[in-house]
Amino acid sequence: MSTRRFLPVLTIAAILVAPIVASEYALTILTYIGLSSIVALSLVLLTGKGGLSSFGQAAYVGIGAYISAWFTLNTALSPWQTLPLIVVVVAIGAWLGALITVRLSGHYLPLATIAFAVAMYFVFGGSDIIGGMTGLSDLPRLTIFGYELHTATHSYLLVWIVLLAFMGGVRNILDSRVGRAIRALRGGVVMAESMGVDTIKAKVQIFVIACVMAAITGWLYAHFQRFVSPAAFSLNQGIEYLFMAVIGGAASIWGAIVGAGLITSLKQVLQDTLPALIGKTGNFETVAFGVIVIVLFHVAPEGLVAAVQRKLGWTALPGRLRPPDAALPTRERVAPGAAMLEVTGATKTFGGVVANHDIGLTLHAGEILALIGPNGAGKSTFFNLVTGVVPADAGTFAFRGTAVAQLAPRTVAALGVGRTFQHVRLLPDMSAIENVAIGAHRRGRKGLFAALFRLDRDEEARLFDEARRQLERVGLGAHLWTEAGALALGQQRILEIARALALDPQVLLLDEPAAGLRYKEKQDLAALLRELRAQGIAILLVEHDMDFVMKLADRVVVMEFGETIAEGTPAEVQADPRVREAYLGGAE
Amino acid sequence: MLVLLIVSVALHLVLVELGLFVFGPGGARTEPLIGWSLSLGGVPVAAQSLAIYATSVLVVLVLYVLSERTLYGKALRAAAINATGARLMGISAAMAGRIAFLLAAIIGAITGVLVSSVTMIYYDTGFLLGLKGFVAAIMGGLVSYPLAAVGAIGLGVMESFAAYFASAFKEAIVFSLIIPILFWRSLATFRLTDDEE
Question: Of the candidates A101, A110, A120, which has its C-beta nearest B182's C-beta?
């Protein structure tokens, strides 16, 4: 246990001590590993955490390297003066590129980055002003306070200190409000947006950060190697960076070093030994390299770091909760009976199927309204219309008396509508408390820079305290730091309710919350919903468990074939002949 | 999905290097399958070029018939649209993947046979050719064979002009073309959907 806590400290100590024991050759290799690790780290953020894959990182390394190379050779600028230039140029370029590409889903983004990498390779190689295919040489070394960094040890220390700083920065970002929004991307855009996360913004942020990290690596590379040429920034190099990130383990910041170290040394070893082994020269090392990469993916598709952790039986360590300085601000309580959500004429067709036809209902503060109906009646579609996940063909949606056109899920969440999903949408490898904290996303304000420099700790303490409070409220207080994926299905459903409650909702939309729950859990859930109702929260419930619904609901709306067929108290609805027919078939 | 993409890239590296080992670094050029050429309005046109167009049309037609009119083709499309749903209907997604891979490989090989008399072929020529094919397919939205073919012709025309006006940046221009296209597509098709995991 304690060794695990000290492992990062030991690693950092080993990194700093290495120059004393390692040879100059080893230090040079280690410097290259450090450089690759920074790019791999940028991909851990982009791919491992944000789910966006890029083969184009080498091109951004090249852009950084070439900008610094050209300006230091042709102007009076020193490398330290070109650095801000690189950061600004690449940040703006990556931002524009991100606006275009991050909206694309599926294969588009990785393939677009391949095309970008190839295009940039030909731009580097075809431009005479930066030396064409031969590149630029005799670049100045970096200096610190007038002292030139001229030994292998200097370069090694500079690169690894920059790497460690970036690791700290990435860790800080990931362990923050913004970081949870980034990690929520892997749970799907629908879930993230429904929790109030601006997913496009989160994607653009990580894309820009990753590209700037790559460009800074290029700057380090140019003045360490003192020579740049297109070959180092080709698509193949971009592919290798992605190999490093994914093989090391794109889910862990340490995976970047493991992957970069493994791939770099593997290539070195293969180059040194294979020709002697086979007895003739050829590019067998690339063949062997490719085969080994494929085998590694079969053995450990989640990455080596995760595979080793699993082998050792390491689960996530519990975090430490700081007592908050204050509670999060809450929304005003609404007097029971006020109309919270009014829907009229909601209509949606899919092709020829009318999923919802002219559905209207009003949900009041302090009431539980159940929406029931046989499978395929259109309940889930209605849910998606109200939450803005699916665009409506027609209908008006009014929230607290203000008529609004149909809103995007993010705006619906910001208005104070919390929801759960019919099929649980949690981040399985994230702790329960962090999952719930995603629900409180809109109740915090701190952004990227506050996270980077840890200026968000007070707000974080408040968010986590709120998440803990909601988890204890729903009865999961013993599982704060358990990974959500390790919980039983029933507990995961309850966890989703805690996440929705962390939004501080005035309206709660629950899609089959009792499915998969045991009898006792259902009783606890019913007690919780009654408590929420007493607090004035308006609850819309879609549920198949009739016993649960009829005991709990104040009013019931029955749907069949996309239309409302009955509405009233549980007793009225149960007596309605049309409802009986819908559920039991006609009495002929 | 990412792992599949990366493994296929690793496989690509292996195959290219094996290609280098088998064929060597030198280029090769074959005799055209059809030697004669004819004159269309004063412009000499090699019969081989016409054969390439004819083959393209034929491949588009065959793919259309396969995917629209045969059970296997429909299974393939079903697996592409919704793998889980297709499997519940008894379609093996792995089989669908193998068939798609096989078809793509056959079309690639046919392309190689036809193109080897038109331009010098090196062990890694197929990569750039394939990437250009991808740019063209994106123009067609990755869903339509004829649109992809139209995209490819547009790409070829652009490339010829680029080769004339800025030959050093020919490839850069062709691959940068993808950016305005993607921008247009991102405006046209953005919807709040989740990729299938």
Answer: A101
